[in-house]
Amino acid sequence: MFRSSKRRTAGRKNFEQSNIVHDDSYISKLYSSKLTFYQLPPQGEITLDQFEIWAIDRIKVLNEIESQIVRNKSYKDIESSILPLLQQQLPLNSSNPEKLKQDRQKDYYSHFILRLCFARSKELRDKFIKNETILLKIRFQQLSQKDQQSFVKSLNLPWDFITQDEKSKISDQLFKSIAPSLQYQLQLNDEHSKKQFFDNENFIKLPFEHVIDLVSSRSIYLYKGYGYIPQFQQLKLITNEYEKHLMDSLLTTAHAFPSLDEDDRLLPILQHLSTNSNVSYQPDFESNSSDITASSIYSKKIQENLPLCGSQLMQGLHSTGHLKYIARQQFTLFLKGIGLNLDQALEFWQNEFSKSMSQDKFQKEYSYNIRHSYGKEGSRVNYKPWDCRTILSKPRPAKGEFHGCPYRDLSTDVLTSKLGNMGLENKDIMDIVEISTKGEFTNACTKVLELKSGINEVVVHPNLYFDRMRQAQKAE
């Protein structure tokens, strides 16, 4: 699926020349439509650079979709935000045939590359399916009616449009079944408007098991094992089928992962993309910001930029004069990421620990671990600040511990109180707590970042939150 100059592929599975397919009819079938369910696997060669760059470009689009969802934006708002980004990262409307073919190739390959990235866990699979389904919906609604019909026909789904004679025989039942939808979805309130729309609408007939969600809401007419729905709801059917297809495909991909273990070129790229989907951000833990010192950390200017996890660690340390091992790791690396150099870090920790122990004990039992985190002791690894995924992978804090993610670990009452202390309004606090109770912890932090700074970016790292808050602060 990809190539890289001056790399040996002899002896590796799936990389023999005989496996490379250059079939024009196959390629033509892959890119025959502007929209696809990505049912056929791509075949041929791309470079490792293309492999990574194309994946990153698609992740940028999916991240923006995720960001809009977190902020409870309407579908129209999501669409207006995504369309310009799509045109920039994944365009599919070039009038140049060769350029259009290249764009479709990039779109096709990038989807399959991200399947490899997001197939490894249920959390990643659910996130990928949700965002890819919205992307399909946006693209579908940009198609002309002719292209929409062509796309639906190409899917070979188990449904048919009924004839006018069949519609006439069950017209009363059909009208009753869709009347509520006409009012609430299409804003048709008077009977004349509803009847006029009904008379011009086509209906789809399909096995009822494909529309169980519509059956439970009583918004579909059932007859002899078939369901009848209006054409304006066909996108719901399409997205349902797409979600099922993606879930099956991702599970198949997950089962195939052991066969990738021998390829040391792909795995680092896939690991990077899947564990830090916001690939545009990497904490610059090498740099030393001149205003981040052992004393300036206590200033309001710095404190108000801390994410809630950072504030929790800071408050716990300041009140007790001590943090347990995981919390010390988390906070030491976070402070390192915001620009606190080693000398200032040692001074900061010694000042705080002096409340509960002697300087001699601190030097003997704790200073080594701080120097180790900065790559100055032991194996001298220059450790990176923990991202949200790493923090959430650690054990939950017990009583008297302050590490972890507050959106996951705090009770509703305590979380509500802490969000109030950040100056958020009650309505916003309720929205954030609700997001947290759904298990969308990074999304809750993303919502706080937007409310506090006005910056629209999905938070995948505590240091990203801090950096964006400082960015907004300096812009004031």
Automatic annotation (TrEMBL):
Keyword Nucleotidyltransferase attached: yes
Residues that coordinate or bind [4Fe-4S] cluster: C309, C388, C405, C445
GO CC, any one term: alpha DNA polymerase:primase complex
One Gene Ontology molecular-function label: 4 iron, 4 sulfur cluster binding
UniProt-listed GO biological process terms: DNA replication initiation; DNA replication, synthesis of primer
Note on cofactor: Binds 1 [4Fe-4S] cluster.
Named cofactor requirement(s): [4Fe-4S] cluster
UniProt KW keywords: 4Fe-4S, DNA replication, DNA-binding, Iron, Iron-sulfur, Metal-binding, Nucleotidyltransferase, Primosome, Transferase
InterPro entries xref list: DNA_primase_C (IPR058560), DNA_primase_lsu_euk (IPR016558), DNA_primase_lsu_euk/arc (IPR007238)
The keyword 4Fe-4S belongs to this UniProt entry's keyword annotation: yes
One Pfam family matching this protein: DNA_primase_lrg
Domain DNA primase large subunit C-terminal: 302-466
Function: DNA primase is the polymerase that synthesizes small RNA primers for the Okazaki fragments made during discontinuous DNA replication.
PANTHER family given in the database record: DNA PRIMASE LARGE SUBUNIT
Family, similarity comment: Belongs to the eukaryotic-type primase large subunit family.
Protein name as it appears in the record: DNA primase large subunit
Lineage of producing organism: Eukaryota, Fungi, Dikarya, Ascomycota, Saccharomycotina
